[in-house]
């Protein structure tokens, strides 16, 4: 059953919408079957990316409209082989309400909320209820004459719902520590802090890097799509105290892609080559997501080059192991092979659950460069990262501080990439550090997020100096 929750989640709105326009026995039966598959996934705890605290919502939005269709529509459809399309309110309305419920189900599955409050529920439910009332009124009156008029009304109502849900998502998706002035201040700082750029040749490829500030070296390693601009804001904010080194990982953005065989140990050697190219033999290493995995590998294989590691939300789903997430990543691989890397990347991106504000805070040059890297990540890197298991013996033998970290929003929404940090802290017997925000809050909470990183850097420096 693993991997069916996503397709069912996407199919339900489409199937119920078609059933509402032209109800037939077979179409309603297919929609009910997809409904049932999703319900089994939710009740059986097989849906890998749905929040546990939203389970009752998913059940309600699946069962109630399906029951209405069964009770009201199916007996009337059973008397004919084709569609049954009355001019007044009748069997079509339950299918239309099921379509609205399926849209809300999709909305509540994708939009992250740390807490389900009355306001969070009211924001999407009220416009959906208003739209349903309009549908009922239109059914009770004479329908608009002409196909063009009917299509125009349908498209208009759909646009109204989409806009209403977009506004609801922007205003209700919660992030711990959000400050509207955060991004503006960080952008201003980034424009004022100069970055020295350079390249280093290593193992067949040229790696692009940037250096900001002066002081103790801090090497920051990016995750999926591996661009140095992941850390544009924190690098500028930390430049008053640290020499911050960022780089484009092998195969991404301004680094070359001559070697296509992916190897995490080679990624660790790349980080070491960048560090030495900037004139340092040792540094504190920070990594987020896949970059945290590379940081752990660097500490395990080259401990003399590492004074401390801060591993923020490494997605080591095999480390638990988290079998549901592993099955889903296998499904992403199959989707990518069948329908292309873009479909695989979309499937990967949706359940990450980033607030909409985060996308508006991403530097423009970052988005332009990383679009091409998406396929490379899905096809060459993703499976190695999610199946990575750290060498705990080597990490303990290295005796450098290892700091597993997780975002507060990530914890609250129980995301798959947050759990391994807790597991790592438990097995290394070290504290788990909690940052503000989510998986990529260095974009939309750069100031508060960076201050949490600064405090953590000071603590690791005091521990390493003992």
Number of helices: 20
pLDDT average, as an integer? 84
**Structural domain count:** 2
Strand/helix succession: HHHHHHHEEEHEHEHEHHHHHHEHHEHH
Report the principal-axis shape: elongated
Instruction: Indicate the proportion of strand residues.
Output: 5-15%
CATH fold group of the largest domain: Rossmann fold
CATH architecture descriptor text of the largest domain: 3-Layer(aba) Sandwich
Helix content: 55-70%
Q: SS-based structural class?
A: alpha/beta
Instruction: Report the C-alpha radius of gyration, rounded.
Output: 25 Å
Structure summary, number of beta strands: 8
- CA distance, first residue to last residue: 52 Å
GO molecular function: hydrolase activity
Keywords: Hydrolase, Membrane, Transmembrane, Transmembrane helix
Protein name: Alpha/beta fold hydrolase
Description:
With 466 residues, this protein is an alpha/beta fold. It has two domains: 168 residues, no CATH class; 283 residues, 3-Layer(aba) Sandwich (Rossmann fold). Helices cover 58% and strands 10% of the residues. It is built from 20 helices and eight strands. It has an eight-stranded mixed sheet with strand order 1-2-4-3-5-6-7-8, with helices on both faces. Strand 1 and strand 2 form a beta hairpin. Helix 3 packs antiparallel against helix 4. The radius of gyration is 25 Å and the shape is elongated. The relative contact order is 0.10.
